[in-house]
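Model the whole thing, not chain by chain.
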Amino acid sequence: MTPIPEAAPAALTKDAGDPAAGAPLLSARNLVKTFPGRRTRTGRAAPAVRAVDDVSFDLRPGETLGLVGESGCGKSTTGRMLVRLLEPTGGSVTFDGTDITHIGQRALRPVRRHVQMVFQDPVSSLNPRHRVIRTLTDPMTVQGTDPREARARAAELLEQVGLGAEHLRRYPHQFSGGQAQRVAIARALATRPRLIVADEPVSALDVSIQAQIVNLMERLRRELGLAYLFIAHDLSVVKRVCDRVAVMYLGRIVELGPRDEVYARPAHPYTRALLSAVPVPDPAVERTRERIVLKGDLPSPAAPPGGCTFHPRCPKAQDVCRTERPALLTVGGGPREAACHFPEAG
Amino acid sequence: MSTAPTTAAAAAGDRAADRAGEPPLLRVRDLRVAFPTAAGPVRAVDGIDFTVRAGRTLGIVGESGSGKSVTSLAVLGLLRGAEVSGSVELAGRELRGLPDRELAKLRGRRMAMIFQDPMSSLHPFYTVGEQIAEAYRVHFGAGRRAARRRAVEMLGEVGIPEPARRAADHPHRFSGGMRQRVMIAMALACEPDLLIADEPTTALDVTVQAQILELIARIQAERGLGVVMITHDLGVVARVAHEVLVMYAGRPAEQAPVDELFADPAHPYTRGLLDSLPRLDDDPGVPLHTIPGSPPSLLAPGPGCAFAPRCFRAAEASGDVRARCEGTRPDLVPLRAGRLASCHLPLADGPSGRPSRRPSDRPAGGLPDPQDPTPAPEGTR
């Protein structure tokens, strides 16, 4: 029956670029997730896939951390472990000082109030048989809010995301993709969370709609002091919304740092290649810019290359890269870290 | 057995373009496609004109439902059960109305297509070598052995390592990027003059996308191939296209050379699209500009400009001008420097007349509520 308290607004004033500022809201330490290999028809067990391999980072209150990488790099798996949709194989997740890595569903419930998720496909992430009002009130009543209060708040939530009370009685199929994503965001906001894990929240939307949702998420963050973990493959979108960026490759973070540094002076050769591969919507820029085209494909995470996993595609690879796995270390004295034997000096 | 002849225009696309009197590689005029549905015809493409010359790339951009893919299928004559009208000329020869047998001789041979999802366009049961060889045997009457040699040669040309061994593999053994290379090898095995690529890199990661775009560009330069690149990604268009056609709701919004289009768009929709893109090289501090609302239903198009309900120019206008946007469909007319736009209120020329990037939170002067669901949901009680 207790109303859900407002998120702590203290988050708004901190300096996102300073690693020493305040205690982290969420910490991931040495996270590992392996999926058992499927048995083949001949009965041989396929090798286990190490989807996430020793991933550590902190997320501070009110901060947006971008998790970028190509398909299969483990970014979604990481996001799902943070909200405990997947059980980590190893490592730990701490939310607001509490270790939530292996706690039971009952103990998890108060944490779930503060950590919510938004998915890529808005239509399939909403229950098609529930009207919007039920989609929005369920998370609140589960958390013990009075149903009448929850209904009143549902209307408020819709206004907060740019819809109106007239949409409360509608079903998901009656919305366009952009509107459905607004409903999904409203649902995530229902319990007044402090952190939202957004997994590719705009990549299923048309260009003209993407901008609407990006602006909405930015505004909500400002107004509510939210922290986001923003998982995306689109580097241009990530640059727009994130304070810090973590670049993943084959289950590991290869570079982590403040956005402007990572984008302006990428330290890891993979980050450089990734950035140079993104087409810029300007023909004059496209004709003149330097482009690094990587050789080959992403190796299978079931059989990652030895040493640095990027070495077969890396233009700078030396002997040591084939044998020794580089640790994520500070580069150029700054807050930035890269896992490379030969990082570009910042 | 004949070796595949290259076109006279190969590697000299620009010269061919200048030669007066020679018909362009592809000329499409007033193409219209309607799909009959229970609720009435859906006009997926409603009057599109364009030409593609040898060695040149036309980019067709638009959001989902704008008709860009349907256009390409109509060009190849692959739409059954749809009402298609207009003219499609390949090197001066009219394709519309050709019997299926005749069309089949041209498809794959003179014009080829690659699709977004290479897995669903490759047959899972046959090896990729067999699939590449098949078209070559059909079009050139080549024997099994020669066709297989050709398949291996093509796989090598598109950058697949160990082509002779890989030709014996089935599609599931290839990664997404490699499958797209196989599709390209298959499309180019018969040395077509025209390649239609429908979102060829949308399903791929950016580093692999860069490889595939580079491959298409290399082959185009070597053979003087005409390319139609259909995409929703303005970045891809900026990278590969010479000319651009922007589509909205099945109609052409703007057609222009690529530099002019990006530097100085004339249609408010083009302007809006460019402004709403997050870019690697822009300032993240400024909020993104948005186009309010969402694309219209094609089932019951209004009498006016399809973009008018979302258009800032129409919203600013008043009286008769506004009435014209809402009541009369604008024709595609030449504006300046080889550019065409279908707009009653095109944006002015040059930087002086160029409006600033428009803030999204400006007072919505008579604009319909951006959140109003434009495709009126059925069953609202």
